[in-house]
Amino acid sequence: MCSYVVEKTALTGSAKAAGTWSPINTAVVSVDHPFHAPVDHALMVDFTQEGRPVSERIALELSVASARELIVCMQTALDAFGEGG
Amino acid sequence: MYQGLLAETVTVVGHNDDEIGAYLARPLGPGPFPSVLVIHHAPGWDTATKEIARRFAYEGYVAICPNLYHRFGPDLSPDDAAAAARAGGWVTTEQFLADAAGALRYVRGLPVSNGKVGVIGYCSGGRQSFLAACELPVDAAVDCYGAFVVNGSPPDMPLRMEPVIDRAPKISRPILGLFGVEDTRPSPEEVAQIDTELTRLAKEHEFHSFENAGHGFFAVDRTMYRVEAAVEGWRLILDFYGRHLA
Predict the structure, then answer these.
(1) Can you give the residue range of the structural domain that contains B190?
(2) Does A40 touch chain B (CB under 8 A)?
(3) ipTM score here?
(4) For residue B159, what pLDDT is reported?
(5) Which pLDDT score, from 0 to 100, does residue B169 have?
(6) What residues of chain B score a pLDDT lower than 50?
(7) What is the CATH number of the domain that holds B214?
(8) Across the interface, do B159 and A59 touch by the CB < 8 Å criterion?
(9) Can you list the alpha helix ranges (DSSP code H) found in chain B?
(10) pLDDT at residue B198, as a whole number
(11) Which member of B43, B183, B186 has the closest CB to residue A35?
């Protein structure tokens, strides 16, 4: 379904695409029909920098199952690192 | 037999008198032809939706598909426009209805038009097709698995999609509904509720729910495509429009 599920969060970091690094300060997260990934529904993340065109976003489309695995993987890595950063 | 069609982008006047892009596909020839307003799904004014418009032109209809995401950037690629829509809260019901009304005016003003216009939408466009049937002067409407018609989206979602079934008393033309029994939005229970309400209101409608099909079974470029449901669905659509738009 077109779920309209969207979440947005501010962040601090950089992302690289097409050989170029760019600062990013926002992530728009949705679960809906992807554009490119060969699945019915995907977790989609658009990393953006406020004021930059949407065509410069760094976009991810992950199957729901692999997105859940990635979340666990990231959480495990953060837990292993511990506090601070 | 000679066959030909023309497909091009045109400009229609929509909400707030804004000029927005629209994809127009029509048979060559003097007509008169019936028309179909094709509403794109949430992923945008994309290749698959324009293929649907060309299919209608092949079948003898003037098809128009307004770019509901035009204001996010008229020259954006479909995926970028959809991303902007996600980040920007999509489009309001008021804006959609005014844009759709502009497209209706455009096709009815074409010399080849017979004056009759149907509307069709898929997924989020199915809900909007239902909305158009309630609020706009269409001659027939097709709702392909539109969610959030009878039940709104969950209240904890950041963007609330309001149900539209309360507008059903304003429907004046027939509705065709096409659904998959494996769909969850709309679920078979929700489809049954819409069916019951339209029956209670004595609104002309016919609903078909396909076995072995879920959401998006018409989508030829997605894994949810189901050939039996899609082929029979197209037959039902053309039969329905053939009866109500001639």
Answers:
(1) 5-244
(2) yes
(3) 0.86
(4) 67
(5) 97
(6) none
(7) 3.40.50.1820
(8) no
(9) 47-58, 78-88, 93-108, 124-135, 188-200, 227-244
(10) 97
(11) B43
